[in-house]
Amino acid sequence: MSFEKKVLITGASRGIGKAILESFAKQNFYLIGTATSENGIESIQEVISSNNSSGEGIVLDLNNDESLERFFSYLKEKDLYPDVLINNAGFTKDNIFLRMKDDEWNDVLNVHLNAQFKIIKNLIKPMLKKKFGRIINLSSAAAAIGNKGQANYVAAKSGIEAMSKTLAREFGLKNITINCVAPGFIDTDMTDNLDQDYKNLVASQIPLQRFGKAEEVADLVKFLTSNEADYITGQTIHINGGLFM
Ligand code: NAP
Fold first, then answer.
1. Mean pLDDT in runs of 10 for the chain (245 residues)?
2. Does ligand 1 lie within 6 Å of residue 57's CB atom?
3. 60 CB under 6 A from ligand 1?
């Protein structure tokens, strides 16, 4: 069976990444999803097999250089270089600035900004050869408006947006587009642990009066990788129910 394209989604075991995996699973793509644990890999395999798709889950910890090196070697050995790369995986380690520890700062910068740099650097050369590539980096509304307790996360996401603009300039000539998707509050494990009163307050300030769904973000990501979005690059597209305009 020949596939239209290979798609790599980091953090495909849960939340937005899983919804993105599901949206690609309905088409003729070879799917590569990552998770930090074997449980996460099982969740990825389940999406792939229940949609009769082809692909695989690979263990990857973005906060661990050895794990990243193993991942790059595996992709090279199996010729799994993606045509579409979705840098989605992420986590938060919130703390107010005066209490923020070095490891809280470094871990969040590592998993978001530094890992995206390493992944794109390792995987873009085959895209250059093919003169085709679609890269989507997950940012956040917080990068535009700031968020108390998230100096690390906001710095990382702002860095991702700035890096993406520069890469869009460097690689446009080779028909590689690089865009960011910046969600507001989306119902996933990441927002699950927020206090319910705070969630109600936030929802009341969103013009659409609710948190977004992972599937709604997935639809936007999917669009940005489609032929219909061929002329869009270097952009950050916000999806937040009007929270930030
Ligand atoms: P989520 O439900 O918490 O899922 C996070 C995913 O990232 C999981 O697949 C997880 O894998 C993976 N991951 C976490 N730490 C990792 C690490 N060290 N190395 C590799 N993978 C790791 O998060 P989400 O809400 O879907 O968020 C997805 C992206 O959207 C993130 O970049 C996030 O910053 C961004 N975002 C989310 C929101 C929101 O409201 N939810 C808003 C703005 C932006 P395991 O299952 O193995 O742990």
1. 84 98 93 98 98 97 98 98 98 98 98 98 98 98 97 98 98 98 97 94 97 98 97 98 95
2. no
3. yes
